[in-house]
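Backbone geometry tokens:
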Amino acid sequence: MSKDIMTVREVADYLGFGVTKIYKLIEAREIPASKIGRQYRFLKAAVDTWLVRNIISEDREFLALIKDVREDFVNAGYTQADIDKTLEKIR
């Protein structure tokens, strides 16, 4: 049975993080959490949405970086073949 509301420990286990990392994300307001008394609770749907948004964000940042690097190579006079060869080494 999947839980709709999770504790810090459950979120840590679900994401494969340590409890300390979850508390750091809470303190930085980087993960959606609700504080009830002295305890935090998480809606599983909100955690899933947060996870997807972060993955997409990192992919977009990576693609933007690749685009910038490609432009720098072109501006420096490198050919497309040179760029492709260098990117292949990175992969």
